[in-house]
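Hello,

Our lab assistant flagged a job as stuck in the queue for most of the afternoon. It eventually completed. Since we weren't sure the result was trustworthy after the delay, we are filing this so someone can double-check. Below is the sequence as submitted and the structure that was eventually returned. Let us know if re-running is recommended.
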Amino acid sequence: MTESTDATRRRSTIALLASTETSAMVLYGLYDVLTTVGAVYPELVKGAPERELLDVRIVNADGRPFSCAGDIPVRPHAGFADFRNGKTLPDAVVVCDMYIAVTATPTARYPRECAWLREMHAAGVLLSSVCSGSLVLADAGLLNGCEATAHWAYRDMFHRYYPEVTFLDNAALCLKAQDRGIVTAGAVSAWHDLAFYLIARYCGYRHAIDTAKVFLMTDHVEGQSPYAVMTRPMEVKDAAIADCQAWIAENYQVERPVESMIDRSGLGARTFARRFRATTGYTPIDYVQALRIEEAKQELERDQRPVEDIAAAVGYEDGSSFRRLFKKRVGLTPAAYRKKFQNLAAMANTYALNRQPS
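-- returned structure --
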């Protein structure tokens, strides 16, 4: 894209949809980065800013000021009415994160937002989301039949409340539904990946690269799996399954763990499997494997024992099988995971020691 084209092209409009549950990091991070596209890089390199290429607007339902998470003040540029009734529509909407506890009910929390998003989608506006923002898209019915992502901790919530959505808990940025006008990003820091995508789409490859250099933006090529932790809320409505969950949490390393749980529950194998999956979102063997891998991850983070010893400690006698399963679930080999997180642990320990009073 040439400079003359940049100087004359129509600015694309990006609407950032926010609420009282939105984090300031996502909202203002996106706003700060997107508003500088085309302007800041030439200022840093040549000493003179150029034209901003994106028109970025913070939007909420009524356009009135509010405070987002942490009581941070927000003064929206527009309300929904500013993009209705024949008025100019945005090119894209970003549904910022809208925090909800993993034990809460996500449905019917944002009826006005859902209605407006359906209108925008029907009008051909690109819809995107960051983290829990995809729950709003799901509640609007816009993700039905789609593959989508959000923070890995919402896996069970999607399974329970939005079964028509194929939830990808590993993806940092999901483009599987972009031909249907929808792009979703994972955990909150994945707004970097979404911003890079939007800049490349509306301003071109060169501006995306230049902006990444300015802000030291990075992608999350490994996805979310290396960071994901198994969520294990106890289901109290099914006492037999709850008892098995509590038991297997302390006995995941035993031989034939699924058979032991079935015997403990007093249920038939098929009935147990059906009730276990309905309760936890996992098949019994997947649940056991997830527990074992989670324990192995914690061992790898803090222990220098050989991988085979850690595999045996969590219930796998065959080190090769353990390595294959670990790579499939985590996205890294055990050795690569150990290197990544022991390096982080060493850095954190150094920083902690440096701040101690002498």
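-- support follow-up --
The delay was a queue issue, not a problem with the job. The result is valid. Strands lie at 12-17, 54-59, 66-68, 72-74, 92-95, 126-130, 147-148, 166-167, 173-174, 182-185. The radius of gyration is 23 Å.
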